[in-house]
Specification:
The protein is of the alpha+beta class. Helices cover 32% and strands 13% of the residues. Strands 1, 11, 12, 13, 14, 15 and 16 form a seven-stranded antiparallel β-sheet that branches. The longest helix has 33 residues. It is elongated and about 140 Å long. The two termini are 43 Å apart. About 20% of the residues have low confidence.
């Protein structure tokens, strides 16, 4: 995916014109009306009542368009009769505009001439017979000298009288000034038509003359219709008088729409060049006037010309850039000679001009020493890319007509736009289809229609077609079409097609739209009519840039005005969408089944029912509903529109203060890439080569002269990478990113919200990884059910998600693996959480539901077997009391006395989310209506909950219930209070790791200590087992296929000591004072569940199997066999986020790092809580390799049995119990064969998510399942491992280490590899020059080997009495004395420097090491510490306490620790 080509600026260069196979266009068409061959060059007014006659060559207008007699001065009977006359010809420049001038009221317009006299030198005042009335004269404006053959001019003049029912003819301009200014007589208006008057022309269909490249690209082949769009009015052969000036090239643009809806933009210029007379036939010469009709003699004084076009095709609407390039190529072809051929400049522009990227937003192309163009990066907008110009629409039609066209487009009318300026047609046509966003025009759309495709105007479907106005000189227009004349600013409606009035639109939104458009039109007029004063040359460029920026701002405001109207018109539409919940019917994609049409119509006001009724019946709205209901490429645009709907307020009479569109800076910077012209070849001896390329016309491109790219590396560097992600669901839309950024900015100021914001992004990271996890899972349904359980628990614990990506990914996976029912449950979970799915999520949901195979509605075999199973189980449950009664009767004593009743199993406490105990080994009933069976893997899975390791297996008991009086899962665990060692278990290990023996197992107790034991202390029939045995027994019951190892009871050598210090299990534990507990460092306290250490991140139990599909066990979990407790894993990874501030050398711990992060998703720094310096924290990683090196052949140790040791294997059982115990209740593993320590940046979840999304987009989601991720992207990998392990979320990421460079492969048969991950709160490595922390000293005095070695020898003041005094103060709630004692403890001279830890951290870790994690309420400790610090601040001062690093963590840090939970080990 990373090898995809970057976006290309230009795709094709095309030369079009008259080809050999071109066919004539005019001969096949219907007979056209006679069109004038010459323009009007003069007008005159004659007074017939005074004897004036029509001058020679003039034509008099005596009737109106409907045949009524017209007199310019018909106000009174005695007025002179005045008539208007005109003359055609080519002897002078034609007239291009007519007008009426009121003397004394109007100012003369510049360039206009006033017709004040008649040809007979009398006054041409049209109101001469009405004394007292203002004088009225005709005015005209003439084209500039010299006249050209294609000059626009007035070709027709007419007079209309509205009182007679006459209207302005089509394509005519009307002068809105009454010629009859008197009080009597009908109103009379002057109308004229502007066109190109030409004759002696042959029109042919344009053909392809040349192209580059010659081969079609796979992604975009050259369309065959491109030549006819380059020359929309055809390729012509024209006969001109000798000496006629060549017309200027005409620039035009067009749009080609593919079958998939993607647009290709074309820019072309049309020009004329000489045509050889030898290629004409006699018939063609006669029609062109080159031969006389009578004797076929050549007519002198005529020249022959043809029309050609050059064009570029691109997927980007850079029309102005393309115009400059094409004009340079045209001027290059008509000038010369040149050193370089024309093909060199074409290939240079296409290959070596890069597409602007965010890194290089400006590309300055120097085509020659005098020609250059600037290419800027397009504006980053959430709206679809378009070549629309709303300012051109307002400039040519005005605000009122623009709103009228909005109604026409929304109701799908036939619109024909025409103009004499072909470059305006595309801009206005694109604006018409863009103003109705989010609706998309579905009918034919041709903004510049060629003459060869004019048959589309007769189609019986709605269309938007733009055409050159000269079309009406050739053919009769259709009758059922609405004509939009851009040259005259008029809309012509036929009787068959009547538009809805703009009053049918919603009143307030329409009023705001009109007000905005009128304001923008006024600002545009002021911008265009700004006086061009003389300015210094250095200010010309800056003024041009300022004017361009002003136009861009007005363009944005105009587009936002139409966007606001559409948002108000469609407000609340999402509440009427109908999700597909049951199995879809064949007509599931029908708009009526996807949208409540009648409900939406009833929600609108009655006055606008007609407009909404027509809108709901259009293809526009039907396709819009389908786009909203199913996944499509328009999801980002529709999601942006939903945000606009939420912003607008319909009842307002003015636009909202918050802008709807927030565009990024299109330049992104001022960095400019300079592209030089093509290099000229060096001549002999370094002289300038001769100029030998000269062209008589535009040449046919020669392939041998087209050069390859000069510097392809530059183009690749300058161009932006564009690659589609493997799956669009994980990708956030731009609106979701902006909303998440705003939420993060607000949350950063509130401690609790900031912690929840980070937690939500952490879960978002796991769901981004979920597709790779499900793909690698052997049971897809179980993995999906696990993800659904995570969603449920997140909703229960009020986890604030920054977006809907989590739900969207799970919905897409449900559709991918054929689980539509689970997708429906995910949607219901969203609604239960109060989340309204946006367009993107809603589309993926309906796609998953519609395209997946639903279970059969009839009762299949599985359902019948489930019913039969329930009946059998129910019957067995009813027969059980009968059997018990029979058994009691059989056990009666012959003397009539009853036998003692068998002990009943204790009551079970509900410890799972399903409300049942995992201890219950009886099969549960299955709901008859469900098609799911209890997963066997769920029943075999070991009972555990997050943060608590799985206990080692106990010895199996042949009969009898467990003797524990409390069989809840709170008793199934190991004591994790105290030490930090123990790779075989402990809170630092993965939830599935099996720890060694701890005090929870009560190894010093004999079986006789338990209730029901034999009097002799030996194991009797009813002997109870220790709690460790209970846990293993439950594990054995839940894992029938794996037999756990047996663990014998420890010899009763310390039985008395144990009995004196440890209570019996049947008795409640005796309460000790805090001081008594703290002053016994070598005595382990009892384990009780700590309610204060529960966090949102750590209490989610992913092993819950109550949903019918149990959670997938982690790949890092060891198998439940005997080797799990004794043999180390293949790799063990220790992770610590504790970092040292480079400013004050203080240790900053995890929760303080989280609190110091910012809401900026590009900022890697955190803030030190002591010196407020910003620095980048690091994740310290230690990788331990426990894999055995290849040993020489010989007798070796007997491998352990896969079923573990049995009771008779005393040697192995003693080995299990003989391992030294550490504070965390886990055994020290064997020395690893290889250690490696690395460190990488520790980034916030916001930064990590942005980088992960970029990785998925550029390299695909498959990388997350390959070991290359570890080596190529280590920061992303290790941060993901840290967060997933921190929240106990399953992943396969640790297993990737086995294939990375951190675990070199051994030359031996592969072993079943396991990777254990441990999270540490404190630093990973000890500082040999500093004094050990207090909790390490406590462990040393407790004869517990420390995890970190070597430390420097402790200072003399740091002795055991000091530690016991500190603990006594903490235990007696005298924390202020402990703080004061630490502050007053002197440092001995020559002793190692004190550790860079705060006093709070020293006391907290010492308390945790002495009392144990389960017996320490960290929140209560924080409250006491803050209260104690408040007592000391009065005596020592806050500044002094801060300098001595005695301040507690901030509120934000405390909330982060409470939300995520503290790391398990110190």
């Amino acid at each position: 995916m990373s090898d995809e080509k970057p976006p290309q600026l230009v795709d094709y260069f095309v030369v079009a014109g008259l080809a050999e196979a071109s066919r004539a266009l005019e001969e096949e068409q219907q007979p056209r009306p006679a069109r004038p061959g010459e323009p009007i060059t003069d007008v005159a007014v004659i007074i017939r009542s005074q004897g004036e006659e029509v001058p020679q060559g003039f034509t008099c207008i005596e009737t109106s368009t409907s045949g009524h007699p017209v007199d310019l001065n018909a106000g009174l009977l005695n007025n002179p009769q005045m008539f208007l006359c005109y003359k055609r010809g080519r002897d002078k420049p034609p007239l291009i505009e007519l007008g009426v001038h009121y003397e004394g009221k109007d100012r003369p317009k510049p360039g206009y001439q006033i017709l004040d006299t008649t040809p007979y030198s009398r006054s041409a005042n049209l109101a001469s017979g009405s004394p007292g009335h203002q004088r009225t004269f005709l005015t005209f404006r003439r084209a500039a000298e010299p006249p050209g053959h294609h000059t626009l001019g007035v070709t027709d003049i007419c007079l209309v009288m509205p009182s007679k029912g006459e209207s302005t003819p089509h394509t005519f301009c009307r002068v809105d000034k009454n010629l009859n200014t008197s009080m009597w007589g009908p109103a009379l208006f002057l109308c004229y038509k502007i066109a190109v008057a030409k004759d002696n022309t042959l029109v042919y269909e344009a053909g392809l003359l040349s192209r580059y490249p010659e081969q079609d690209s796979e992604s975009f082949p050259l369309p065959e219709s491109v030549p006819v769009f380059c020359l929309p009015m055809g390729a012509t052969i024209e006969s001109w008088p000798v000496g006629t000036k060549y017309p200027l090239p005409v620039f035009s643009t067009f749009v080609l729409t593919g079958a998939s809806g993607d647009k290709v933009y074309g820019a072309a210029i049309q020009f004329h060049e000489a045509f050889p007379r030898e290629r004409l036939s006699e018939a063609q010469a006669l029609r062109l006037g080159l031969l006389s009709v009578v004797d076929r003699r050549p007519v002198p004084g005529r020249s022959l010309h043809t029309r050609k076009s050059i064009c570029v095709l691109s997927h980007w609407p850079f029309f102005e850039v393309f115009r400059k390039f094409l004009m340079f190529i045209y001027r290059y072809s008509i000038s010369g000679p040149h050193v370089l051929p024309l093909e060199t400049h074409i290939s240079h522009f296409m290959h070596n001009v890069p597409f602007p990227s965010p890194q290089r937003p400006r590309i300055l192309v120097q085509m020659s020493p005098y020609d250059s163009l600037l290419l800027c990066r397009p504006v980053s907008s959430p709206l679809p890319l378009s070549g629309a110009s709303f300012l051109t629409l307002l400039q040519n039609l005005g605000p009122d007509n623009a709103v009228a066209l909005l109604v026409a487009v929304l109701t799908e009318q036939k619109l024909l736009i025409h103009s004499l300026r072909p470059d305006v047609l595309t801009s206005v046509g694109e604006a018409l289809v863009a103003m109705i966003f989010p609706l998309r025009w579905q009918c034919p759309y041709i903004p510049l229609c060629p003459l060869a495709l004019a048959d589309v105007l007769c189609a019986p479907v709605p269309f938007i077609v733009g055409i050159h106005s000269s079309y009406f000189d050739l053919y009769e227009p259709p009758r059922d079409v609405i004509f939009v004349d851009l040259d005259t600013n008029t809309i012509f409606q036929s009787e068959e097609r009547k538009l809805l009035s703009p009053r049918a639109l919603p009143r307030r939104p329409c009023k705001v739209l009109l007000a905005s458009l009128h304001s923008l039109s006024q600002q545009l007029d002021e911008l265009l009519s700004a006086p061009g004063e003389e300015e210094p040359p250095e200010l010309v460029l800056s003024d041009a840039e300022a004017a361009g920026a002003r136009r861009a701002q007005l363009e944005l405001e105009a587009r936002a005005a139409f966007l606001r109207f559409m948002a108000c018109a469609l407000r609340g539409y999402r509440s009427f969408l109908r999700p597909i919940a049951p199995a879809p019917a064949p007509a599931g994609r029908d708009a009526g089944s996807l949208f409540a049409l009648q409900g939406f119509l009833r929600s609108r006001e009655r006055a606008y029912q007609r407009f909404y009724g027509q809108l709901l019946r259009t293809q526009l709205f039907t396709q819009f509903i389908e786009d909203c209901s199913f996944a499509s490429d328009r999801e980002p645009c529709l999601e942006f529109f939903d945000t606009c709907v939420d912003k607008v307020q319909v009842d307002l009479e003015k636009p909202e203060d918050t802008p709807l569109m927030e565009l990024d800076d299109p330049r992104g910077g001022e960095h400019t890439v300079f592209i030089t012209p093509p290099e000229q070849p060096a001549g002999p001896d370094g002289a300038e080569p001769p100029a030998r390329y000269r062209y008589d016309g535009f040449p046919t491109l020669r392939p041998e002269l087209l050069e390859p790219p000069r510097d392809p590396l530059l183009a690749q560097l300058c161009q932006a990478r564009s690659s589609a992600p493997s799956s669009p669901a994980p990708r956030r839309t731009k609106q979701e990113m902006k909303v998440a950024q705003r939420v993060a900015q607000k949350s950063s100021a509130v401690p609790e919200l900031w912690a929840r914001c980070l937690l939500g992004h952490c879960y978002g990271l796991w769901f981004l990884y979920l597709p790779a996890h499900v793909r690698a899972a052997p049971a897809k349904l179980r993995a999906l059910q696990l993800a659904y359980d995570v969603l449920r628990k997140m909703e229960q614990h009020k986890v604030v998600l920054p977006d809907e990506v989590c739900y969207r990914i799970l919905m897409q996976l449900c559709g991918q693996y054929g689980e539509p029912v689970l997708s429906v449950r995910v949607l219901l979970e969203m609604k239960r959480a109060g989340i309204v799915p946006n367009t993107v999520t809603y589309g993926y949901y309906n796609k998953a539901v519609l395209e997946s195979k639903w279970p059969a509605g009839t009762q299949g075999g599985r359902l019948r077997w489930a019913k039969l199973r329930n009946v059998v189980l129910g019957a067995a449950q009813f027969r059980q009391p009968l059997r018990q009664r029979q058994r009691r009767g059989a056990n009666r004593d012959p003397r009539g006395e009853r036998a003692p009743p068998a002990p009943r199993p204790p009551l079970q406490r509900q410890t799972t989310w399903a409300g049942r105990s995992l201890r219950d080994a009886a099969p549960r009933l299955v709901k008859s209506g469900s098609l799911s069976f209890p997963a066997e893997g769920a029943a075999r899975e070991s009972p555990r909950f997050l943060g608590t390791p799985t206990p080692p297996p106990p010895p199996p008991q042949p009969r009898g219930p467990p003797g524990s009086t409390d069989g809840s899962l709170s008793d199934i665990g190991t004591d994790d209070s105290g030490g930090d060692e123990g790779p075989a278990g402990g809170p630092g290990g993965s939830p599935g790791d099996v720890p060694g023996d701890g005090p929870r197992g009560s190894p010093g107790r004999s079986p006789g200590d338990a209730p029901g034991g034999s009097p002799g202390g030996g194991p009797g029939p009813g002997a109870a087992t220790p709690r460790r045995g209970l846990a293993a027994k439950l594990q054995q019951l839940l894992s029938p296929g794996k037999r756990p190892p047996a663990r014998p009871a420890e010899p009763p050598r310390d039985l008395g000591a144990r009995r004196g210090s440890e209570p019996r299990e049947a008795e409640p534990p005796s309460r000790r004072s805090p001081a008594e507990s703290l002053l016994r460092p070598r005595e382990r306290p009892e384990s009780t569940a700590s309610e204060s250490s529960v966090s949102l991140g750590s209490e989610l139990d992913l092993s819950d199997a109550s949903g019918g599909s149990g959670g997938t066990p982690k790949p890092t979990e060891p198998p439940a066999d005997g080797a799990a407790g004794t043999e180390p894993p293949a790799l063990e990874v220790l992770l610590s986020s504790c970092s040292r501030c480079p400013g004050c050398a203080a240790l900053v711990f995890d929760e303080e790092l989280m609190a110091g992060w910012t809401s900026d998703d590009s900022n890697l720094n955190t803030c030190c809580p002591f010196c407020s310096r910003s620095f980048v924290p690091f994740l310290s990683i230690e990788i331990r390799d426990f894999r055995r090196a290849p040993s020489p052949p010989g007798p070796g140790p007997v491998p352990p049995s896969p079923q573990g040791p049995v009771l008779s294997d005393r040697r192995r059982c003693l080995e299990l119990d003989g391992t030294p115990e550490l504070c965390n209740g886990c055994a020290e593993p064997p020395a690893p064969g290889r250690r490696e320590r690395v460190a990488f940046a520790y980034v916030s979840p916001l930064v990590l998510r942005k980088e992960l999304e970029s990785l998925l987009e550029n390299e695909g989601a498959e990388l997350l399942a390959r070991p290359e991720l570890v080596d190529s992207h280590p920061i992303i990998f290790w941060n993901l491992v840290w967060y997933f392990q921190r929240l106990a979320l399953p992943s396969n990421l640790p297993l990737l280490l086995l294939g990375s460079q951190h675990a070199p492969r051994r030359p031996q048969p592969p072993e079943p590899g396991r990777v254990r991950v441990r999270l540490l709160w404190d630093v990973l490595s000890a500082d040999p020059e500093s004094c050990p922390p207090l909790y390490v000293l406590w462990r040393m005095h407790s004869n517990v080997p420390p995890r970190l070695q070597p430390w420097a020898p402790p200072a003399p003041p740091l002795s055991l009495p000091l530690l016991e005094a500190l603990l006594a103060h903490v235990g007696l709630n005298e924390v202020h004395k402990a703080i004061a004692l630490l502050l007053e403890t002197p440092t001995a001279p020559g002793a190692p420097r004190a550790p860079h830890r705060s006093i709070y951290r020293e006391l907290l870790f010492l308390t945790l090491a002495a009392l144990g994690r389960e017996h320490t309420d960290i929140a209560a400790f924080d409250r006491r510490y803050r209260a104690a610090l408040g007592r000391l601040s009065g005596a020592l001062g806050r500044d002094e306490l801060r300098r001595r690093r005695a301040q507690p963590p901030s509120a934000k840090a405390s909330d982060c620790r409470r939300t995520f939970g503290a790391p398990p080990e110190c």
